[in-house]
Amino acid sequence: MTSRTQDSTLSGFMVCAASFLIACASVASADDQTSSTVERRFKLSIGGYFYSDPDGHYTGEDINLRYRRDDTSLWIGQYHDRSFGSQTRAGTDTAWNPIKGVDLSIQPSLQIATQGFIGGSLNFQYGTPWFVVVGIGRTNLRPYQNLNFDPNDAVTAGIGHRSENGNTFSVTTIKDDRLHTAQRHTHALVQLALPRGQRLTLDLLRKSGMGDSGMVHAWGESVTYDFPSWFIRAVHDPKQSFGTADAARITIGLRF
To answer: For the whole model, what pTM was predicted?
Structure first.
């Protein structure tokens, strides 16, 4: 299959997925319409991955359970596909404001996984309603199936605006600063707060850098629709993790 045909197939997938998300918005459950303020600390997510590379098509799946209280999360998950194999992973992330009255948030994270993987990140966010983000991520370079698709050993820089009604607009760049690949992801994100505790998130991705089979220059996108008790997300990521496979993903999650 040619790359042009692969791109056409995945683009069609994203159009269908976006249409499905819009349809979902019109069928929110009665529970969501009347209980958007209920505290839900657990989130269970199930994802299906659809890969297309020069050797053909294959699928993957993951399941993830996350617990969140205040600004701290704990999570554990399992991923599998025929190319990478299986991997169990877990992690934690948090945020705190060290200076009272100053809009500065420090956001560390830690991830561990089977096959000996350890990784982490440290971000700083400052300002309101306009804000800036800077950060750094590091791993021990052991095998890890990167489910957020962004480079792990990288620096982050971004700017955004969060309005009083909850709408957020931001541009963020994540760039490899360790492996000399020039890999870069730039995200333009729009997050819209909707009635009854619902939310629509659109993320446009531009990626470039040295991949497994040469230079990569591609566009990706994701669409997420959140209801108070559940969400659905569709993602298209060409040359996932700068490899040879184009990836599409559908994730459905339940909050409880």
So the answer is: 0.85
